[in-house]
Amino acid sequence: MSGNGEFIPNRSPIVTNINLPPVPFINITIPPGTGGGCVTTGPFANITVPFGQILAPLNSSLLNNPQNLAYTPHCLRRDLNLKVAGPSLTSANVEILLDSPNITVFNQVIENGNGNGDLSLHGGGHIGVGGDLRDTFTSPGDPIFYLHHAQLDRLWTLWQERDPQERQYAISGTGTLFNYPPSPEFQLNDTIHLGKLSPGGPQPIRDFLNARGGSFCYEYA
Fold it and tell me: How far apart are CA 211 and CA 193, in angstroms?
């Protein structure tokens, strides 16, 4: 998956925030990592990422401004950060997640952490690698995005398997990021639009909730 970005010294901490009406104002301070520059070694050295980095406060102006998703080619950047990854990506946090009694708590833990100062198993992976992976909208430009999200999917599958009768088709949440603007709770028969990835057209959410059924046929080792 290649390694860290080239080290850039003398950087200040990054302060970013989430400021959307349904969400309490959240400030996040991220200390500098051990890289920050372009990835120059391994199979993904010198690749071009077409979008980002936005690296701006997550607010309504950002979400409503199409210029923030403009074509801005640049090198793949990473900034490995053990100060973030260390307390977030732990086996103890995995067990806390897998002990979640329902899907609502599961979502809260995987997105918001356990309340002990970590950045969660999801956010800790993104910010722990840093660089392009830290960008809310353009993180798929780093190939490690898919490995990270495969692990999150694996943890969800393990959680489902602890009580498949109650958890296999349990969902929670609305159709908008942080429920902005406010939208109805998703239902199992609501559809997901995947464009060219789904030649048969939109598919219901229930078809995506079973790794061994619906459109899928795989299991995690």
Answer: 19
Would strands 58-59 and 14-19 be described as parallel, antiparallel, or unpaired?
A: parallel
Rounded-to-10 torsion of CA 130, 125, 12, 29: 140
Structure tokens at 149: 């999200």
β-pairing verdict for 71-75 and 58-59: unpaired
Q: Is the pTM of this model over 0.85?
A: yes
Residue 144 CA from chain centroid, whole number: 11
The tens digit of pLDDT for each residue in 27-66 reads 778 899 999 999 999 999 989 999 876 655 555 556 566 6
How far apart, in whole angstroms, are the C-alpha atoms of residue 132 and residue 2? 14
d(CA 116, CA 103) in angstroms, rounded, equals 21
Round to whole Å and give the CA distance between 162 and 170: 13
Confidence (pLDDT) at 61: 59
Tokens of 30: 């991220």
